[in-house]
Design goal:
By secondary structure, the protein is of the alpha+beta class. The protein has a five-stranded antiparallel beta sheet with strand order 2-1-3-5-4, covered by helices on one side. The longest helix has 16 residues. It starts with a helix and ends with a helix.
Length: 201
């Protein structure tokens, strides 16, 4: 499975899988490319640039095309904020992404699995939907009966110095996080304007 995911990373020209041993880091060129092709890169069209950026974002968050396009439609239709801000918030507020951001999983794929298997609770209630949208004030934690399983063993030591976004406050000793504010896309590595433009064509 890891090889398939990393082929996507190599095709997109960026590591989007979240894996430490991503194949793109060792072979930063598309699969099947010859030495001549690597040295003489073709120029992408505007549409091709938008497409690549859309695929980067979609594969980073591990979302299917239909669901991702629905996020974009919602972002374009919402009044009171820019489409890029709304899209970023929708992606970051997914429960599986929050679990990943907290450091409870080393990839969004594992975070999605942990949520689906019922290991994560929101406001003391078990939530098994990875796309569940957390809100300001919500408290996210590990289910009491799951604290002793593999991914969560010796968690406080692992998470003590783990970097987290400012909009999430986390207490490693309790294994509990609180959503303090809405996520901001100031430091985002993606060009979400290109994503919006792709779906506007």
């Amino acid at each position: 499975m890891g090889r398939i995911i990393c082929k996507i990373c190599r095709r997109l020209g960026e590591s989007v899988c979240g894996r430490v041993k991503c194949a793109y880091k060792r072979r930063p060129y598309p699969p099947g490319k010859l030495d001549f092709d690597r040295k003489h890169k073709s120029v992408r069209s505007e549409f091709g640039t938008y497409l690549i950026e859309k695929q980067k974002v979609r594969n980073t968050y591990g979302i299917g095309e239909k669901q991702f396009s629905n996020y974009v439609k919602f972002a374009k239709a919402k009044v009171g904020s820019t489409p890029t801000e709304t899209l970023f918030e929708s992606l970051e507020r997914r429960l599986d992404n929050v679990v990943f951001r907290l450091g409870l999983a080393n990839s969004r794929a594992l975070a999605r699995q942990l949520v689906s298997h019922g290991h994560i609770v929101v406001n003391q209630r078990k939530v098994t939907i990875p796309s569940y949208q957390v809100k300001v004030g919500d408290k996210v934690s590990i289910r009491e009966g799951s604290r002793g399983i593999g991914p969560f063993k010796e968690l406080s030591m692992k998470l003590e110095n783990h970097p987290r976004p400012e909009w999430i406050k986390f207490d490693p000793s309790k294994g509990e996080a609180e959503i303090k504010s809405k996520p901001k896309n100031a430091d985002l590595a993606f060009n979400l304007n290109s994503v919006i433009e792709f779906y506007s064509r």
